[in-house]
Amino acid sequence: MRTPSPLPPRPPRKRSPVGLAALLALLLVGGEWVQELTDQFAFGGALDQYGIVPRDPGSLPHVLTAPFLHVGFGHLIANTVPLAVLAFMSALRGVARFLAATLVIVVLGGVLVWLFGRGGSSHLGASELVFGYLAYLIGVGWWERTPAAIAVAILALFLYGGALWGVLPTNPVISWESHLFGFVAGLVAAALLHRKRPPRGGQVNPYSPRSRF
Q: pLDDT per residue over 19-46, tens digit each?
């Protein structure tokens, strides 16, 4: 009597890109809320001291913490929806690219704020990420120039393009420097992660249609 051969193992189910993007956005926004709740109720707002104070040597490591701090719940609420939407749209590009883009925005944007921001003030808040993700999506549309990437860039501009006025010094209590340099860092992230490079060792054909002016 033959014994039945075991069934081949089922391949593991892959998470959908939409589900992964939603999870990443939820973790990011949820982390911001957990941090602020902890800060307000356990530390009495004392964690805000880890914002960026430009050109203060002891504040340089705070480039890694400043985008995850807020001056109260009103500040956090104002950033929550745009952060969730733009993080979700950015994460649709893939987990690795999203994490890499976030790192570039946090580090490069924060260092630029530390170098060129107004002295004697503390810069903190997720708006650096909001402007960084907005610029990242615009940059991806520019570098890739595929219908999908361009459509996402246009949608991001339609939803939050009006916020670009925030890169101007219109309000002394708002860190327009974080907005501006977060935006710059987002463009750099898009160029680093999505700019197409010619193949190694190969010469570009000067008569190819792509090279014509």
A: 999 999 999 999 999 999 999 999 999 9
| CATH assignment at residue 157 | 1.20.1540.10
Return the structure tokens found at 11.
């391949």
Crossing angle, helix 127-144 and helix 73-91, to 10 degrees? 20
CA-wise closest residue to 158 among 85, 109, 87: 85
Distances (CA, A) of 2 to 6, 7, 9, 37: 12, 15, 21, 63
For residues 186-204, give the mean pLDDT: 78
3 Cβ contact partners less than 8 Å away, ≥ 6 residues apart: none
Q: Residue 63: give the domain boundaries.
A: 17-195
For residue 138, being part of any structural domain is answered with yes
93 phi and psi angles, rounded to 5 deg: -75, -10
3-state secondary structure of 52: strand
pLDDT digits (tens, 9 = 90+) for 123-178: 999 999 999 999 999 999 999 999 999 999 999 999 999 999 999 998 888 999 99
